[in-house]
Design brief:
Elements: H1 2-18, H2 51-75
Protein name: Cytochrome c oxidase assembly protein cox15
Amino acid sequence: MNAAAALRARMATSFVARRGFSTTRAQLGSPYHYAEGPRSNIPFNPHTKYFFFRYWAFMITGFGAPFGIAVWQTYKTR
């Protein structure tokens, strides 16, 4: 039983060593591959003039709205 397990382990390592792992280069002419690199996978442009202000307005609105709604619901008269 141990000899069979050792044989399988030895065969498995030799099989994996023979596999050729390769990748293909992204083809930019294809509609399924997009440009790669920093800031290419986000749906906005951080290099615009007012990005800083828009970003913080979005964050304050998104994270502050639930707390503002909770305060409004708390102080609302029934």
